[in-house]
Amino acid sequence: MKTKFKYFVILLVLSALTVLIYKTIVKLNYKEAVKERITTLPGMRMLTADSISFSIANLVNDKYLVLVWYNTGCEHCQYEAQEFRKNPGSYGLTQILLVSGEPLSDIRKFGKTYGVDTLQYLKLMHCDFQAFFNTFGTTSVPSIFIYSPDGRLLKQYNGETKLEAITKYLK
What we know:
42% of the residues lie in helices and 21% in strands. The protein is built from 5 helices and 7 strands. The longest helix is centred in the N-terminal third of the chain and has 36 residues, at 2-37. It is α/β, with parallel strands linked by helices. It has a 7-stranded mixed sheet, with helices on one face. The protein is elongated, with a radius of gyration of 21 Å.
């Protein structure tokens, strides 16, 4: 009986280790696939704050793109929005997309509250959480992706980022 129990425990431990190793490999492969996928600008679909279907692929190709995944209640995201509004001269050849998974009403309210809803170089967007995660591999806020005019990823930031750190890639 003791021998059977030992074999059972050994089998159980080996099974648990096998599952753990498998899940780790799957996660690493997923992260690598996301990293590869976002090295060039993905052509995903979103909604504008006015409920109009929009594809990132429709953006003008001669401009830099700063894509910010944000949440309307996030203090760091609110700070970023204020910085984008305060420094319009820093974004001459840049398009900024503030993308959230929250309801469109919350996105519009955020735009009005922080004065970014009327900026020519900034668009407020809605994208489903899962769709954003599947494409960019993150839903932490704020997450910032800076793309060159030819669609190459120049830099990715997670968390609040100073304006100077962003604009140094926009030259």
